[in-house]
Amino acid sequence: MLRPKIPTMPTPTGLVTPPAVIEPTTVVQHHPTPAPAPVASTRPTVQLTPGAVLALVGGGTAVVLVVGAVLVSMLLAVAVTGASVAVCAVVIRSLISSQHRR
User: Fold this and answer.
1) Lowest mean pLDDT segment, chosen from 9-13, 58-62, 86-90
2) Which of 79, 77, 75, 76 is nearest to 87 (CA)?
3) What is the C-alpha to C-alpha distance for residues 54 and 61, in angstroms, rounded to an integer?
4) In sequence order, what DSSP letters do the residues of 8-71 get, joined into one string?
């Protein structure tokens, strides 16, 4: 029914150059050099003072509280939306059923 068409190799146009001749190269073995001795780091070390630790704990607590408040508010918005849709469905159902009784 549907058969794929296999592309054919196009014929070359213009001048065709022969492939380049690859000459073998010689293999040279290098002796491994010894690794340099490790150098002591010149970066300053981080020292946490009690005040810095208290600031980190306070900042982490603030981030957790803000993220928690955002997530709870989003959950509350979804719950309120679901409740309002349910109330609308009940009202529409009662309106439709009252029209069928008449």
Assistant:
1) 9-13
2) 79
3) 11
4) PPPPP-S--PPPPPPPP------PPPPPPPPPPP-SPPP---HHHHHHHHHHHHHHHHHHHHHH
Q: Write the CA distances from 5 to 2, 8, 12, integer angstroms.
A: 9, 9, 21
Per-residue model confidence as pLDDT tens digits over 19-42? 677 777 777 777 777 777 777 667
pTM: 0.46
Residues 6+ apart with CB under 8 A from 48: 56
Question: What is the amino acid identity at position 69?
Answer: A
Q: pLDDT digits over 85-98, tens only?
A: 999 999 999 999 88
Integer Cα distance of 1 and 6 in angstroms: 15
